[in-house]
């Protein structure tokens, strides 16, 4: 019997299991569909093209996935959805303020669209007819909203934000979907980097006011303008 391949070793000396042949083939399929999406829309891509780009047969695609949409969904999960864990760790460990959390989440979203626009456009195409994709998409924004809500609650507890009595999660989820639609509309048309910067600034302002972080600043500005 042939012994298993040796485990790989990281730079820190920790041993990790070697990647299996199946894992490598699955990754090749995800890489293939991402390359194809960069060249043409999802509706024009075929299973045969995905397989060829991975150096595999059409039958191999169906061994791992139930069809083209499932390959795309897996690619989205790999590149987009699971990355929110990094944001969660960062905001929780550092105990960030609400606006710092918002800044990181929005910055992450804009950067994600810059790097993965074809994949994210495909994700939006799947939302209407693939329930699992819709559930994952909604779960991502719900997770972001919970990160913001937790930061709002921390700020309220330490007196950095006024306690308005509203549910911070309900406010955060509404603001998150507002941002999602605006970012989507911008990145699915031709635009300039200046437009990106302007949208980011506008969203930051609206969210700041939405969570109450702008109330004190707005009051000070008003007092200064009135000369009091």
From TrEMBL:
Keywords: DNA-binding
PANTHER family: HTH-TYPE TRANSCRIPTIONAL REGULATOR ETHR, HTH-TYPE TRANSCRIPTIONAL REGULATOR RUTR
InterPro entries referenced in this protein's UniProt entry, alphabetically: EthR_C, Homeodomain-like_sf, HTH-type_TetR-like_transc_reg, HTH_TetR, Tet_transcr_reg_TetR-rel_C_sf
Listed name of the protein: HTH tetR-type domain-containing protein
Pfam families found in the cross-reference section: EthR_C, TetR_N
DNA-binding region coordinates: 46-65
Region (Disordered): 1-21
Domain HTH tetR-type: residue ranges: 23-83
Organism: Marinitenerispora sediminis
SUPFAM superfamilies: Homeodomain-like, Tetracyclin repressor-like, C-terminal domain
Gene Ontology molecular-function annotations: DNA-binding transcription factor activity; transcription cis-regulatory region binding
